[in-house]
Inverse folding.
């Protein structure tokens, strides 16, 4: 249902309805969340939030801009306090058109002179508009509207300005005659007597709206019994926030510390919620390409690397220096180079030696009795709740950025990088994770989806299609499955030393598709002193 229609229904509902004041997007949203079925865009409060007076100091287009944010932030109708219509009948016509365009359901105009003054500031001295001129303005507004349910509420200021009930009734009568959808009868008295007297005499000729700011002590049932259409709580969101801001500002100023205010302010998470941060997160998943920014790297670096002898006495292999900086720093640079800055390092041996900042560290204190898969599990536990793509690699593997890029750009939810040129370059006899795939690397393979069949040092030479580089990609959709399987594997005490390759084989055995991205070189596994020398030129 259109907001205009909903507002019209509020006006004509047999119940007493309520509008809450709002003055910007967030206050409007809070009002709607509290259950209000409509909002009052108060002129006083819109001015106040700009830090100016309620004397048309903010231009009407500045008001309009704010209204657009308010309408966008909510689904309930908004009644604009349109002051005097910001000019004559002609300004009123344009105002109505613009309000309709911005999704505002209705406007209230008051029979005073531009620039107006707030009714509670020397109200008795304020001149009223000529009723005939004001009727022309109402007619112009009503004839300008395109949506048949857009409403114009005519506000009678006769009681504020010290005229009697008779003048108020005469004006109200004329305004309804001119086409007003409702009358707002305003009073600055501390009791409701005036508006109640008006309501009795008026006798339901059109819906009547009230603003009990000054007669706030009147029980709401009195308004209900009198048959008013809508009561407007006209400025309480603004006044509440001023009180809160003053208290907070004073506290922070005097204590020069945030400790005492922290519990009195909402957490930033609440700000994000009100802004709809969740929706954006969902939308990003649907519309953004899988960028590196949504990738988290997990670097497994818990083991010592005893094969490097005394080089790894003081520090783990990942911190052995190559070309003046630790291996890990080269790895971090490579990840950063493709935009991956969220990096989790699982450390174990000599964990205190890790001093690179800006990384997340996860400790595998049982590194001596556990394997890589244990480390991976710890990293997965740490990443619980995250919805990024994980790229897993090793703390002793140097690589070109291209490798990470190729991996993150593949379609597959699970993917590994396989070096199809494993025979060349490196030491033939060394320990390696050989890979059997659904198809060898070839020009044709480039256009096909290649799957992993097995990764194992024991893959017979005739079946080897390459060597696994240690790179594994896990997309968010595959994470639950991977977690489940890791937990299952590690539940068996005999498998505490399981490796990531065991996970890959288990995935394949269970029918999961693990996609293979072939590369030719572009990486280096540092397993020996000779590798360290090679690493120097690789880096
Ligand atoms: C407003 O909220 O701006 C109003 C109501 O117009 S009053 O301040 O009572 O005039
Ligand atoms: Mg006002």
């Amino acid at each position: 249902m259109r907001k205009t229609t909903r507002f019209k229904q509020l006006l004509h509902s047999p119940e007493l309805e309520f509008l809450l004041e709002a003055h910007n997007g967030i206050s409007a949203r809070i009002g709607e969340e509290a259950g209000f079925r409509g909002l009052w865009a108060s002129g006083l409060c819109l001015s106040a939030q700009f830090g100016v007076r309620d004397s048309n100091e903010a231009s009407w287009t500045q008001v309009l801009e704010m209204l657009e944010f308010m309408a966008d932030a909510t689904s309930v109708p908004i009644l604009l306090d349109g002051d005097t219509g910001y000019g004559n009948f002609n300004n009123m016509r344009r105002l109505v058109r613009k309000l309709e365009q911005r999704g505002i359901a209705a406007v209230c105009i008051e029979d005073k002179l531009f620039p107006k003054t707030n009714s509670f500031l020397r109200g008795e001295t304020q001149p009223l508009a000529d009723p005939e001129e004001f009727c022309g303005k109402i007619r112009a507004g009503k004839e300008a509207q395109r949506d048949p349910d857009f409403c114009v509420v005519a506000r009678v200021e006769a009681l504020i300005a010290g005229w009697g009930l008779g003048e108020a009734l005469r004006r109200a009568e004329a305004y309804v005659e001119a086409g007003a959808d409702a009358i707002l009868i305003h009073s600055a008295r501390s009791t409701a007597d005036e508006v109640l007297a008006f309501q009795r005499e008026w006798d339901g000729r059109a819906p009547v709206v009230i603003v009990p700011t000054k007669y706030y002590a009147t029980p709401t049932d009195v308004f209900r019994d009198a048959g008013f259409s809508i009561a407007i709580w006209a400025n309480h969101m603004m006044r509440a926030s001023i009180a809160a801001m003053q208290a907070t500002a004073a506290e922070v100023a005097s204590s020069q510390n945030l400790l005492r205010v922290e519990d009195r302010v909402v957490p930033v998470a609440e700000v994000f919620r009100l802004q709809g941060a969740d929706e954006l997160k969902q939308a990003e998943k649907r519309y953004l390409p899988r960028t590196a920014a949504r990738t988290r790297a997990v670097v497994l670096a818990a083991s010592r690397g005893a094969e490097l002898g005394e080089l790894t006495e003081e520090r783990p292999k990942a911190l052995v220096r190559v070309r003046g900086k630790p291996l890990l720093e080269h790895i971090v640079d490579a990840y950063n180079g493709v935009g991956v800055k969220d990096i989790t390092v699982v450390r174990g041996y000599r964990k205190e030696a890790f001093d690179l900042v800006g990384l997340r560290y996860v400790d595998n204190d049982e590194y001596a009795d556990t394997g890589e898969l244990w480390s991976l599990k710890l990293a997965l536990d740490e990443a619980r709740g995250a919805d990024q793509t994980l790229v897993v690699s090793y703390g002793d593997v140097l690589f070109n950025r291209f490798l990470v890029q190729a991996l993150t750009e593949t379609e597959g939810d699970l993917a590994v990088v396989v070096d199809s040129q494993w025979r060349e370059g490196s030491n033939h006899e060394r320990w390696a994770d050989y890979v059997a795939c659904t198809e060898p690397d070839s020009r044709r393979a480039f256009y096909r989806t290649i799957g992993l069949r097995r990764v194992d040092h024991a893959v017979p030479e005739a079946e080897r299609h390459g060597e696994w580089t240690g790179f594994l990609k896990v997309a968010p959709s595959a994470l639950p499955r991977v977690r489940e399987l890791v937990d299952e594997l590690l539940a068996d005490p005999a498998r505490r030393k399981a490796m990531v390759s065991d996970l890959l084989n288990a995935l394949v055995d269970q029918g999961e598709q693990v996609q293979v991205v072939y590369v030719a070189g572009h990486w280096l596994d540092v397993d020996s002193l000779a590798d360290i020398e090679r690493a120097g030129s690789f880096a």
